[in-house]
Amino acid sequence: MRVYLTGSRGRIGTVAERIFRAAGHEVVGYDIADGYDIMDAAAVHEAMTGCDGVAHLAMAMGRQRAPEVVYASGTLGTWNVLQAAEAHRVQRVVVYSSVNAMGYFMGEATPDYLPFDEDHPCRPGRPYGIAKYLGEQTCRLFTGRTGISTVSIRPPAVWSEEDIARIRAERARDADFEWGTHWEYGCYIHVDDLARATLCALTCSDPGHVALLVVADDISSATDLTSRELARKVLPEVAWRGGPEYDAEPYKGLVDNGRAKEILGWAPQYRWRD
Question: What is the pTM of this model?
Fold first, then answer.
């Protein structure tokens, strides 16, 4: 497969390109670091020539970015990629969304239940999350109109080995590190696992359109509290829907990745407690 990869020079994109190439695929990189902007519809269209798969990772983000820039990048940038994909009749489009499309991360809102999954209502309230949610809906409508399958991937915090080492050191100094206002449900994904999930999303059987939570199997934490105990400690008012699987796997993730595993034929390899 010849894969058009936006954000190819980024932290995730560089790993994705390595994994794609190792699997025998050709990669056409497209990144703002090389002067290629996803807001330039003509340039996006030209660069996608000859490609039969798309992995769209790029988006303007960061606290230094104006909200309108973040919003436009996540909506119009995705629109430009989808329009080019239709013109070139690619086989599959994978678009990076985010857990923030759901609206329950970074202290935004409280979920109705834990563990939560893709069936949980989405309630984003900030430009980044709203743009990601609208990108998912644009993909859904695009697939319904064109028949080109789209996979929206919702990753959480994406960590490399260096990130994990830093976080472990911080938690060794302060067990409450990351368990305050912006508690992330212990949710994370190793960058290699995310890149492999992206490859699986490009090559799996046609799913139509789907939005998937691509997260690690277990929680990250600095304590011996189980997933259920942490949920009760941090969000005691939230309904618990975990079953006996949390007795068998006490540190099982509080964000359910079962649908991603089933549809993509993928499983994360990194575990916090390995």
Answer: 0.95
